[in-house]
Amino acid sequence: NAGVTQTPKFQVLKTGQSMTLQCAQDMNHEYMSWYRQDPGMGLRLIHYSVGAGITDQGEVPNGYNVSRSTTEDFPLRLLSAAPSQTSVYFCASSYRTDFNTETQYFGPGTRLLVL
Amino acid sequence: AQSVAQPEDQVNVAEGNPLTVKCTYSVSGNPYLFWYVQYPNRGLQFLLKYITGDNLVKGSYGFEAEFNKSQTSFHLKKPSALVSDSALYFCAVRAFNDMRFGAGTRLTVKP
């Protein structure tokens, strides 16, 4: 198993540009999520999904869109990038919908710089 | 909303000495608590979790954590630190389709 994979590893954007961060998992996990990591703030939940076709907002959803058309993929879209979105983005997944007790598995991260 | 606090930004210990990384939590209902470790330029790796049962939880790489309900704490411990334990450690609490992380504690183990 490849686990949770993310692409690209690093991206530079100009303010106003759009892009999609890709996330895929091959563990047949129902739950998938996106976090951003900023210095001194830990990880903050952006959006999550409990299954194909179902998404919901986390703690910091503004400026980001998600969709979940398949169990395997959970892309994160920035429609109009802003410097405040400079961060490291992590995708994670877990096996069951009762994810309060399930361990999340994290991808290697995407480092995004918005100029 | 649930939250966790890691009161120490940095913990320094000598190799071979015991280590403790502190975490306190706030949650309504049952607490589901996790510890993750992050090595440089890597994603987070799961160490251990408390769901229910024994207050002393054993995890990966010789780490353990003690759940204390009265003090709302979930401190991470290891009897004998290794230089390779140097990393960023995160405590997290999970409830209601949400997961909240602490700000992280950087552990440095010196030879």
Account of the 3D structure:
The complex is a heterodimer of chains A (115) and B (111). By secondary structure, chain A is mostly beta strands. Helix content of chain A is 0%, strand content 50%. In chain A, strands 2, 4, 5, 6, 9, 10 and 11 form a 7-stranded mixed beta sheet that branches. Chain A has a 4-stranded antiparallel beta sheet with strand order 1-3-8-7, with no helix packed on it. Chain A is globular and about 40 Å long. The mean pLDDT of chain A is 93. Chain B is built from no helices and 12 strands. Chain B is 0% helix and 55% strand. In chain B, a hairpin with a 2-residue loop joins strand 10 (87-95) and strand 11 (98-101). Chain B has 111 residues and is mainly β. Chain B has strands at residues 3-5, 10-14, 19-21, 24-26, 32-38, 44-50, 56-58, 64-68, 73-78, 87-95, 98-101, 105-110. In chain B, the strands form 3 sheets. In chain B, strands 2, 5, 6, 10, 11 and 12 form a 6-stranded mixed beta sheet that branches. The chains are: A mainly beta (115), B mainly beta (111). The A-B interface holds A 4, 33, 35, 40-45, 48, 50, 56, 58-59, 90, 92, 99-101, 103-109 and B 9, 32, 34, 36, 41-46, 49, 51, 90, 92, 94-104.
Strands of chain B, total number: 12
Which residues of chain B form runs of ≥5 with pLDDT under 50? none
Structural class of chain B: mainly beta
- The rounded Rg of chain B comes to 13 Å
Compact description:
The complex is a heterodimer of chains A (115) and B (111). Chain A has 115 residues and is mostly beta strands.
Keywords, separated by commas or semicolons:
heterodimer, A: 115 residues, seven-stranded mixed beta sheet, B: mainly beta, six-stranded mixed beta sheet, 12 strands
Write the layout of secondary structure elements.
The complex is a heterodimer of chains A (115) and B (111).
Chain A: E1 4-7, E2 10-13, E3 19-25, E4 31-38, E5 42-51, E6 54-57, E7 64-66, E8 76-78, E9 87-94, E10 105-106, E11 110-114
Parallel strand pairs in A: 2-11
Antiparallel strand pairs in A: 1-3, 3-8, 4-5, 4-9, 5-6, 7-8, 9-10, 9-11
Chain B: E1 3-5, E2 10-14, E3 19-21, E4 24-26, E5 32-38, E6 44-50, E7 56-58, E8 64-68, E9 73-78, E10 87-95, E11 98-101, E12 105-110
Parallel strand pairs in B: 2-12
Antiparallel strand pairs in B: 1-4, 3-9, 5-6, 5-10, 7-8, 8-9, 10-11, 10-12
